[in-house]
Structure formats: C-alpha cells, structure tokens
Amino acid sequence: MSPHPQDDLFAPAPGFAAPAPAYVPPSSGLLKGLNPEQHAAVTLGQEPALILAGAGSGKTRVLTTRIAWLMSQGLVTPGGVMAVTFTNKAAKEMVTRLSAMLPVNVRGMWIGTFHGLCNRFLRAHWKLAGLPQGFQILDASDTVSAIKRVIKAMKLDEERYVPKQVGWFIAGAKEDGLRPKDIEARDEQSRVQVQIYQAYEDQCQREGVVDFAELMLRTYELLRDNAALREHYQHRFQYLLVDEFQDTNKLQYAWLKMFAPPGRGQGVFAVGDDDQSIYAFRGARVGNMSDFEREYRVKRVVKLEQNYRSFGNILDAANELISRNSHRLGKNLRTEAGPGEPVRVNESASDFAEAQWLLEEAQALHRQGLARQEIAILYRSNAQSRVLESALFNAGVPYRVYGGLRFFERAEVKHALAYLRLIENANDDTSFLRVVNFPARGIGARTIELLQDAARISGRSLYQSVSAVAGKGGSNLAGFVNLVESMRNLTQGLTLREIIEQIIETSGLAEFYRNDKDGAERLENLAELVNAAEAFVTQEGFGKDAVALPVDELAPGAIAEGLPRAVAAAAVTPDAETGEIMSPLAAFLTHASLEAGDNQAQAGQDAIQLMTVHSAKGLEFDAVFITGLEEGLFPHENSMSDADGLEEERRLMYVAITRARQRLYLSFSQTRMLHGQTRYNVKSRFLEELPESALKWLTPRNQGFGSGFAKEYQSAWERGAGLKSVVGAGRVEKPAYGAASATPSFAAAPVPKSMKQAAAEKVGAEHGGLRVGKGVFHTKFGEGVLMTLEGSGADARAQVNFGRHGMKWLALSVAKLTPID
DNA sequence: TCAATAGTTATTTTT
DNA sequence: TAACTATTGA
C-alpha cells in the first residue's frame, strides 16, 4: 500500500553553486570563497571572539581556515595554538583539513578532544599531578564497576546506592569542580554518597587509574594550584579555539579559563550554536556562551547564518520551530538555494505501518538514484529502531544502526585489554577482577571475597594480597599470578602486535572462544584488536602524547617568568635501561580508553542509516526521515513537565530538521507498541509549530482515529512477529576496526616534504651523525631506522623503527644510539 | 560454577 | 515486549 502516488521525481543533487560573491575577499588563497561573515571570523585579531555558527554554516571550515590563516600570516607558530573539540572525529577532521591547507607540523599542535588534551597534559606533568607515570584511564563501564566495588567494600545497600547513580553523582561533582571535602551533605543519602566518592577516589589513587571526569579535574586543579605552570601555558598558547562551545560544562569552561583567562589578551575563539544545545542532561551549560561573551568582554559576536546545506523549505521549518524558544542568542538561517521540495508529513495507523511506509518511501528514493547512505531515519529513542529494523530486514534492504557497542567496549576485547593492563600495572584491581576467573580457572566468589578482605586490611592491591589467601582458592590465585608474571616475561622485547597475540593465546582467551560454539565472531574481534594495535603503531607519532612535552617548546620568557627547571625536567622519565619514553603498550591502552572505536557505517557499503537524533548531530544527509513525532515520545514525556526540558526537546527537533539537505519527511503514528503495550498517541506539538507553507501532508490532515486500524495493526504485528527472532541478522557487516576503518594515519596526510625535511635537517645536525632516514643501532633493540629527531640537549628524542621490535620513542640522553651506514 | 528462572525496568550519552 | 540483573537450584 503506497500511501500516495509518487508525485514528483527526485531531482539529483542540484549542487549548491555558491552565489556570485557580492564581497570580494583579499587575494589570499586560503580565504577564497569565504562569505563576509566567515571571512570576518577567520581574520579576527588576537581578541576574544564568540562565533554563533548555525547548522550547515561552514563552521569547521572557519575553524580550520582560521588556524591556517594565523600561521600563514606568521601570527602564531604551531606550538602556540590549541584547538579543542568534543569528539575524536571532529579533532581528526580538523587535523586532516588543516594539513591539506598548510605545511604544518601537526605533531606539535595541541589539537584534540578535551580529554585527549588533558591526557597529554597529565602525561607530561604526571608527577606534579600526583599520578603514577603509567596511569591508565577508566572508561564508563570500568568506572561503574569500580564504584560497585567500593559500595560492596563499604557494605552498603546497592539498592539504595545504585552504582550507576552514584557514578552520576561523582561525575556531576567533579564536573562542578568539587572534591568530597567541598560537598556539604544535607541528608543521609548524599552524606553517604560523599563517603563513597571519597573511598572511590582513594581506590583510584591506589590503583593508579583515573576516570574521564578526573582527567579534566586534575588538569584544572594542577593549573589552578601551580602558578608557574599556569604561567607557562598561558604564555605558550596565544590562540585557543573551542568547538561546540554550547556543549561545554562548568568544569570545561573553568579549565579553559586556566589556559586563557579573560583579560590576558590571548585570542580565544569560541564557536557554538545555542540552538543545538542538546546535552544539558549531561551537564552542558549553554549559559557558558553568554558568560563567555560577558566575562571576556567580547567586542563582536559573529553570526554565521548563511546555510550551505539545506533548501529553503527545510530552513523555514527549522527557523519557525526554534523561534518558539526563549532566551536564544538569536539567529536565523538563510539560503540562496531556493525553496526546494516541501517538507512531507505522513500519518500512519501504527508503528508497524509507519515502518512499512518509510521502507517504501526510502526504496522509492533509492530507485530514483539516491544512494542508501544518503538516507537517514532518525528517532528519539533507541527502542524505536526495532520495528524499523524489522521492516528493513524483511524487505532485504541493507541498513546500519548507529550506537551499539563500540569496538573497544566489546567483552572479549575488554578481557584482552585487562590482561594487557595487568602486565603494565598489576595493581589495577578493575582489570584483575575482570579476568581473574575468565576463562574459568576455579576462582570463585568466595575466594575473591577473602582476597578482597585481605587486600582491604593491608591496604594493598588484590594482586599483592594473593599470598594472604590460603587453601584451594589460594593456590588457584597463585596460579593466576604466575600466569600474569609469565605473560610479562614472555612479552619482554616483543612488538606490540606480538605482545597482544601472545597474551590472547597464553591467557586462554583464544582457547576459550575456539571451544565456544559461537565464539567465532569474538575470535575475529580479537584478531581485529591485533590489527588495531598494528595500525596504531604504524601511525607516525603514535606516542605523541607522551613525548610532545612542553620542555623544548618553552618560550624563553617562560623560564624567566619562573617556571622551575624541575617542572620541565619532571616531564620526561625515560626507561633507565633502554631510554624508551613510553612503551607502545602503555600508549595503546590509553588510546583504547580514550577512543572507544568507531561504530559508523562502513565505507563502501551502501546502507540506510538508522540513528537517534542525538547521534545525528553533526551529520547531514540528502534525505532525512524523522519518525515517531508523537507527544510523549518526541517531545519525550520525561522532558515535557518543565519549560527547559521542552525547549531542549525543541532544539533536538531543530537539530533533526537541519540534518536534511534536500528532502525531509516527518512521520507519526496513531498507535505504538511501547513496553509491551499498545499506546495511543497524539501527534507531536512540534508539527503544529512548523509553517504550513513549507509542509505537504501526504495523509489527510487531522485524520481522526479511523476505520479498523486496530485490525490492520494486529495482523501486521502477527506477520512481523514471526520474524522478530532474526532481527539484526540483516545488519550490514560490522566495520573492521583496524584495517578498513582505521583512522587515516597522520603518515598518510600530505605533510609537505619541505617543512618536514627542513625540521629534520635542522636538528639532525645536532646529534652526532644521526640522520633521519638512516640506520641506527641500539644496544637492546638492535638495528633500526631513524624516523624522527626532535628537541635538543637533555630533551632530545628520537623515533626509531626497529622492525621486529616496532616503533619506539627514545630519549637520546639515555638511549645509546649509534649511526650505521 | 553454571544455567535456569524470576523480577525489574524501560530518553538522549561526544569522553 | 525484551533485555538486563539477581537469585536460586543442581
């Protein structure tokens, strides 16, 4: 049943030919094609700036062009720029685009996510931050299980103190810059939560691990409390750029102010869109934008309102909708692309019928020449994907669902990583507990309890307490310790790849999954882990976070201004024997927790994209379907009670609408299966908030509850029900992590030779015959090829490819490298 | 130590 | 409905 005849043919992408510019920018090639607002933003001087960047207004281009422009004008060197993003993807994109524009030394630049930059900072100043040199990072699930252990150890009721919620509380406190001592507990509940927070903090410190929020807070605190260090970084970074400023939380803004306080005269460039703030529930404060404008005395707010993405009707809908929100900074998107097609609205009798309609419409678009990956189906909550998947699967249409488990979050991968972490740091109790009895080796809950008691009493780690447990459990535990010890011995001197292969075998994981009837996929993932490690090591500059230290970049003035030499010296502590700066394994483990891996559509596979509206942020598609536009769902019932919640839902809708380039469909259903019950829904208020002139109803407007839809619904579900068991089997093959979807390596980026060579030649002369590209000999690692030389004097370091020993970073003051011919 | 069973809960989630 | 957790029984 096609709900309507195909009334007009889908026009292939017309291409948004840029209109003849009324304004002719200066001759510089970099600035060519920028509109006046973009041009103004890019060429602002060294002053605080707030850029209101609407959806599709060329924000990333402005950001990268500004950095390139600053450098090309000689206003700043790579070392003087910091650019912060929220996602690894955004950071990577910036680096890629930048290196395409300019011959830049990407390694020296501080471009990364908030957490990535904090990691880099703390790796350099671990001693001052009170961390062990090889500290590891807990991901979200590690954090919850660590908290769970604390709650158990304190013998508290897990019903009353739910680990996840306590985790929320702790993260929330940290994001407000609060330590346990800073929180005044008003009631029993929060008093105990503070105690848990304190105990958790002690535990993390003991184990040498930090969670995501801790990365931010430690960095903030160290800068706050160490004037010399703060001075150094403020002096160093002359230009700072922050992407997605509307998503920053309180701590992130405070963090920024440590690097660049108002009035210090640095060029702080904050880019954001208050209308796209959809993470308030996670602590994001849109208010940071107006605070920034006020505190930094921003002279001119630049608004980027010219949209290069969507046709007029789509923008009209977006503008009209968002105008209903109050407290906006004020912005209206415009386009020169013409009205385009109307926004189509469809009503269905049931969620099943909706899925069926969607399927047919999407197929029609595809037949008219639209690639499947240019079609996105958006929904408010994940649960809604089921019916859609079912329909697509039955029709044999390739699709991809965003937002499942990511690569490094898969159980088998986490198991392997836990073994690796134990090799690096045996006191990591989280990792210990994860694998002490996996694969099963006769260590039960009782034994673990005894061990935990012993550890608690002596204040030592589980690993260190093993000898305290006697009996059968004790001997099994001793066996586990022996296993870890032997893994550490066996992996000495191996490449990262070999280390991982070795532990996958010795740990018994491979054996376990080989015997498991559906362990094949898990084995594949473990193989993929090996590939990921290989790809990681091959990337030029893999250990950059450990070695890109401030020492060699100290502006002469900074030392004069009092940065103690000791601070600088504390930065690098190479291995005493080999001179190695950071082991590839340690670097890889950090990478694994900071970047959970992709779960994005595989390139080359043409599949329809399914995702929540949240995960669609930042993406764009030729055709977009927004589904489930019903009161209670979108806007979600949990957000409808207060005005702020409703406004955030409206912004969410705004984000959804502005994803579409050419075609936008809005869809809702009279009934929907929710929590096992059929719910009768009213269409979303957001539909009423759109301009009638931009819409085209495919079904009669205000159609009442019609004839016998329930019957149709019933039979439809019965047809669908038999196929539920196979839902998901039709998903497109999962992306390969290492090989196929590994990030484009920095090595592959076109870093022009001239600059690289010049840099190499410059330092090359200083290091007694060592030349980049030539052979070197190391007493332990043997022969290798010198890849990079940088720094000078005591801080000089080299990156060497030792073939079977892999790529390594070495401190020349320690490592004995001799040139060979 | 595990597998079966009962009970519970149900937005969004860049790091 | 279905997915996840916690407990129980073999």
Automatic annotation (TrEMBL):
Pfam families hit by this protein: PcrA_UvrD_tudor (PF21196), UvrD-helicase (PF00580), UvrD_C (PF13361)
Q: Where is the UvrD-like helicase C-terminal domain?
A: 312-618
Q: What is this protein called?
A: DNA 3'-5' helicase
- Answer yes or no on keyword Repressor: no
Please give the family membership noted in the entry.
Belongs to the helicase family. UvrD subfamily.
Q: Which GO molecular function, any one, fits this protein according to its record?
A: exonuclease activity
Substrates-to-products reaction catalysed: ATP + H2O = ADP + phosphate + H(+); Couples ATP hydrolysis with the unwinding of duplex DNA by translocating in the 3'-5' direction
- The UvrD-like helicase ATP-binding domain sits at 32-311
- The UniProt annotation places ATP binding at 53-60
Q: State whether keyword Ligase applies.
A: no
Provide the alphabetized UniProt keywords: ATP-binding, DNA-binding, Exonuclease, Helicase, Hydrolase, Isomerase, Nuclease, Nucleotide-binding
EC code: 5.6.2.4
Report the enzyme's class at the first EC level: isomerase
